[in-house]
Design goal:
By secondary structure, this protein is mostly helical. It is built from seven helices and no strands. The longest helix is centred in the C-terminal third of the chain and has 40 residues.
Length: about 160
């Protein structure tokens, strides 16, 4: 039974829409940083001002810290975005299904979520492997010894 416009909980609807929009934005930003080949947070950290700028400049001064900060930034945005975006969508789907069909709808949502995770993992693995092979090709073109190139890449596993 549909509620009239006066009976709807507009505050809840607004907060849910805001949560979905923020979640989508964070998810998009994380994925876009992941797709860019050489993205780094270094420029952002170096150009900060304000209360924590000394701490951010210290983080930017270390290559080993940046090697940890960049993936944390990318994957953190993706995970937080998914955490904000997925639950309201699941609630909307489950809320629109009649009670006698909730079991089927729940199974479909879970199945599609697992298929999405499996496909995403396969694509991520393919991108990772291709990028490793690309780096091996660049190393080979720099005339490094083959044993060094073999240790630094997965080329032997791919083409042996």
């Amino acid at each position: 039974m549909m509620k009239s416009l006066k009976e709807m909980d507009w505050k809840r609807i607004t907060v849910t829409l805001l949560r979905v929009a923020i979640g989508w934005h964070l998810l998009y930003e994380g994925v876009s940083k992941l797709v860019v080949e050489n993205w780094t947070a270094l420029d952002f950290l170096v150009n900060t001002t304000g209360f924590f700028s000394g701490f951010y400049h210290w983080l930017a001064s270390s290559e080993s810290l940046m090697a940890v900060i960049d993936p944390l930034n990318m994957y953190g945005l993706i995970l937080i975005g998914m955490g904000l975006f997925v639950p309201p969508n699941t609630s909307a789907i489950m809320g629109s299904v009649p009670k006698e069909r909730l079991g089927t709808a729940s199974a479909m949502v879970a199945t599609l979520r697992h298929i999405g995770m499996s496909v995403g993992l396969a694509i991520s693995g393919s991108v990772f492997t291709a990028s490793r092979f690309s780096h091996a090709t660049q190393l080979t073109s720099q005339e490094l010894p083959q044993d060094v190139v073999g240790k630094l890449s997965t080329r032997k596993m791919l083409f042996s």
